[in-house]
Amino acid sequence: MKTLEGKVALITGGNSGIGKATAKLFAEQGAQVIITARRQDVLDRAVADIGFGAFGIRGDVGDLDHHRALAAQISKEFGAVDIYMANAGVIDLKPSDAITEEIYDQHFRINTKGVFFGVQAISPIMNNGGSIIITSSLAATKVLPNHTAYAGSKAAAAAFAKNWAIEFKDRRIRVNILSPGPTDTEILGKLGITEDQRGPFLEHMANTIPAGRLATSDELASAALFLASDAGRYVNGIELNVDGGMSLI
Ligand SMILES: NC(=O)c1ccc[n+]([C@@H]2O[C@H](COP(=O)([O-])OP(=O)(O)OC[C@H]3O[C@@H](n4cnc5c(N)ncnc54)[C@H](OP(=O)(O)O)[C@@H]3O)[C@@H](O)[C@H]2O)c1
Fold first, then answer.
1. In this structure, is residue 209 part of a structural domain?
2. Structural domain total, the chain
């Protein structure tokens, strides 16, 4: 029997990178997967790539009405959710004196508010014994250059997760944090740095990681599967760094 047979999994930011790789793995493991993101064309392509009856719903996690409508639609069409992965996120690397109010708000609207109100809307339609995974970042616990605003937005989301692990005790819903180190996804093209800066930045990152390279999306997906599945059934409230050992240096 497949690991996630009969489960319904909802993944935000599921049309790209870590979210898409996780959606594909969960679908291969038998789950009915629902992915969300803003770009409809990319969402459509991802649904086709994932296969296994994956379903895409367009929406912006910073919009509370989107979460409410999503909960209503999923409850009507799929009944209930077993696995919710709040994964959508953005990053704009800048020193604090270059962070405008707009950049600050964008981080906290998507990476923090999006997670909070996503869980608020989706948890009522989750089955007891379900699993919530919050994609945070190694940057939430490790100081990295020019990550201040992003780090704050991700650290807040990680703090929510630990509180929820207790709040959902009576429903036996586990809540864990998946903290990727640098991972080779589309986000590396949206770091808010120039092309000239990107190469040396990524090379420096790869050289400092004990693994000697960035992670792949599939490696993050494997860790998400552990947290989502029965293999991780006694794991609750942890921050799982999937970072090739970068947190040690
Ligand atoms: N890659 C890394 O090095 C790394 C390291 C640490 C943490 N992370 C975290 O991992 C998560 C996934 O990132 P990734 O690396 O897979 O990057 P990615 O390929 O750029 O994926 C980001 C996803 O978020 C979606 N998204 C962004 N803003 C959204 C919004 N307002 N509403 C709904 N969806 C939104 C994007 O789709 P649309 O643009 O179509 O909406 C996309 O599906 C993020 O939370 C990121 O912060 C990544």
1. yes
2. 1
11 within ligand 1 shell (Cβ under 6 A): no
Measure 162 CA to ligand 1 centroid, in angstroms.
21
- State the catalytic residues: 150
State the CATH number of the domain containing residue 152: 3.40.50.720
Structural domain span for residue 59? 8-243
- Looking at the domain assignment, is residue 217 inside a domain? yes
Residue with tokens 């109010």: 101
CA distance 83 to 174: 10
Which pTM was predicted?
0.97
Ligand 1: distance of its center to the CA of 74 in Å? 22
pLDDT digits (tens, 9 = 90+) for 103-123: 999 999 999 999 999 999 999
Judge if the beta carbon of residue 37 lies within 6 A of ligand 1: yes
Q: Is residue 155 exposed (0-12), middle (13-18) or buried (19+ Cβ within 10 Å)?
A: middle
Quick one: what percent of the chain has pLDDT higher than 70? 100
159: exposed, middle or buried (Cβ count in 10 Å: 0-12, 13-18, 19+): middle
Instruction: Flag whether 2 is in a domain.
Output: no
Among protein residues, the one with the nearest Cα to ligand 1's atom 34 is 37
CB of 186 shorter than 6 A to ligand 1 = yes
CA dist 91 and 110 (Å) reads: 10
Does the CB atom of residue 17 touch ligand 1 within 6 A?
yes
